[in-house]
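Regression check, NAP case 246:
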Amino acid sequence: MEGTISNPLGTRIAVVTGGNKGIGLEVCRQLAASGVTVVLTARDETRGADAVEKLREQGVVGVIFHQLEVTDASSIARLAEFLKTRFGRLDILVNNAAVGGIEPVDDPSFGPKPVGEQYFRSEELKQELNDAGNLTEERLDELLDTFLKDFEAGAPALEARGWPDEFASYKVAKAAVNAYSRIMARRHPELRVNCAHPGYVRTDMTRNSGLLTPEEGASNVVKVALLPSGGPTGVFFAMGKEASFL
Ligand SMILES: NC(=O)c1ccc[n+]([C@@H]2O[C@H](COP(=O)([O-])OP(=O)(O)OC[C@H]3O[C@@H](n4cnc5c(N)ncnc54)[C@H](OP(=O)(O)O)[C@@H]3O)[C@@H](O)[C@H]2O)c1
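Current build output:
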């Protein structure tokens, strides 16, 4: 389902991935409240359309739905074509969609942890991922291939290389997205490309074990999404404040 908003007032256009629930849904609500036209995307048409309808019932206007499965190139291409045709541009992308990468267990500590607990055990890996000036896309791909091989080989291989010992896929994926964002920031100085850690938030991903509400977590993301055009780029924000990457 696609909405009928065509941006008559010339507002900024935002896309939020994984916008049907959790932090993403709240990011959509807060961006819309700031006067941004929001394309709420979700991989599931029904969940996405329901989320937009729920916002509308709550009086939130300026949010439309478009399907997006972030791992599907054809779905990405359809969204890009839609944005081009409908708006002719995109001002803000909140790359929010993610999965925890493991099956939930009956453990209250399950889920993403505050950033200080996500350090890699290998100093070498940490330094390489942190070396924003020299890290290339090709090297990042190589590191991820190595991680996948180690992951398939099992815990001893992960430990030998110094990958994180808990929630390894989640943490490595996040570190890789952060590193890739910095590569993008370097390649496109005309854009602002930043990373935002929302805090430890009560959502499905954390089985509601977080310290912050989705509204509070989302506001840490929205602050970064609304940074002015001359603002920082290639920066990591943890709960709204500039922080180191790993
Ligand atoms: N919650 C925290 O404490 C915390 C801490 C640090 C970082 N984060 C990050 O914040 C972001 C939002 O997390 P959350 O806690 O709000 O999680 P959540 O409630 O589980 O929501 C995740 C969203 O991502 C969507 N999604 C997952 N895989 C997708 C795919 N392949 N294509 C499109 N959409 C996909 C989900 O869609 P479905 O409904 O279809 O599954 C859902 O809308 C994530 O990037 C997460 O890593 C969260």
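Comparison notes: The pocket of NAP is lined by residues 17-18, 20-24, 42-44, 47, 68-71, 96-99, 112, 197-198, 200-201, 203-206, 210 (CB under 6 Å). The chain has two domains: 1-97, 103-246. No diff flagged against the previous build.
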